[in-house]
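Researcher: Next sequence.
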Amino acid sequence: MAGGPRFSHVEDEAWQVVRQLKRGDDVLSVREKWLDFGPSFLSLYAQWDPGMMVQPHGHHSNHVVFVLEGEVSCGSVRCLPGTHIALDQGDDFGPFVAGPEGVVLLEVMMGDPRSFPARQDEWERLLQEHGMERVPNPPIDLPEWLEDARN
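Model: Next structure:
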């Protein structure tokens, strides 16, 4: 039985660094505030550093991304504030590259939010072209019922 609405405020939630890359001496990050996280969906507020990149990937759920501030490229599409990206479960998108001011996103995943990698040859070329190095994913505070599947 439903328990009614759940409320949260972005200012009350803690940042989690979920992805990082290194360019020279700089470490670029994706930070997220998880606004509501349960077995049926995850809604989050994300900030990406300028130039941060995320590999082509898909999710084990339907996924919606809404650009609030800044810009990000999704593959060859430049996404400015107001852009809505919808991804069906099992499809993939990206690679993503944050613009010169970074990007702020609102995302919702309806189901298992974990991702799977796609088009790794393309990703390796992009990392090399941008002088980026992989670094280990930082630890994140997932719910007990969900195992970390990031690579």
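Model: The beta strands are 16-23, 26-37, 42-48, 53-54, 57-74, 77-79, 84-87, 92-93, 96-117, 133-134. Residues 120-129 form the longest helix (10 residues).
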